[in-house]
Amino acid sequence: MTFIGTRDAIAFPADLPALPRPSRVVVLADMDALSHGLAEGSGASRATDACVSAALEQVLLTVTRLGSRQCPTRWAASSATARYHLDLMTHSANNVWSIRTGRDGADHVLLEELEYITAATMSGHRGKNPARPADLVILIGGDHIYATAIRRLRLLGVPTWVLQPGRFIAADLYKAATAVTRLALPTAA
């Protein structure tokens, strides 16, 4: 698989509500799912650093075009994925990557982030300042483990856009998300 870089933003789905300007967008990425998903069909088990980096840049470009004034990000990875993408990790900004051992380590990091956004949204509804921590959550992943947390956010009025890095997405996550877009980068033959 030969990778060709892209400067195009991802098309904003019609299923998502219009965002306020400026907006608060949170980006959470399951780096295990992203690396394996982008490598599907290539014969490799994981995508190259260049391919993963380009996908993340495309997502961040999309966020910028949405008018986000701040974009908290969390790239969660297992220790095996972190080792594989060590160069990418060491060239990233501080406090962006979270590495956790175990089969579902990355999933649990992102679940904690989603639970924090849920709790902050709920306390914002009760407080004097009704500002939410996020106007939109972008989740790169496809595992069923996120479905309940995504459903809670949706019930609180926080839309979630799932960017699906591989061919498959869990049915319950697909149903819980406000919108789902397949994350695919252009490739040459």
Highlighted features:
two-stranded antiparallel ribbon; 189 residues; seven-stranded parallel β-sheet; disordered N terminus; alpha/beta; 7 helices
Question: How would you explain this protein's 3D organization?
Answer:
The chain has seven helices and nine strands, in the order E-E-H-H-E-E-H-H-E-H-E-H-E-H-E-E. The protein has 189 residues and is an alpha/beta fold. Strands 2, 3, 4, 5, 6, 7 and 8 form a seven-stranded parallel sheet that branches. It has a two-stranded antiparallel sheet with strand order 1-9.
SSE topology sketch:
Layout: E1 2-3, E2 23-30, H1 31-39, H2 49-65, E3 68-70, E4 73-77, H3 79-84, H4 86-90, E5 97-99, H5 105-126, E6 136-140, H6 147-155, E7 160-164, H7 171-176, E8 179-182, E9 187-188
Parallel strand pairs: 2-3, 2-4, 2-6, 4-5, 6-7, 7-8
Antiparallel strand pairs: 1-9
Helix pairs in contact: 5-6
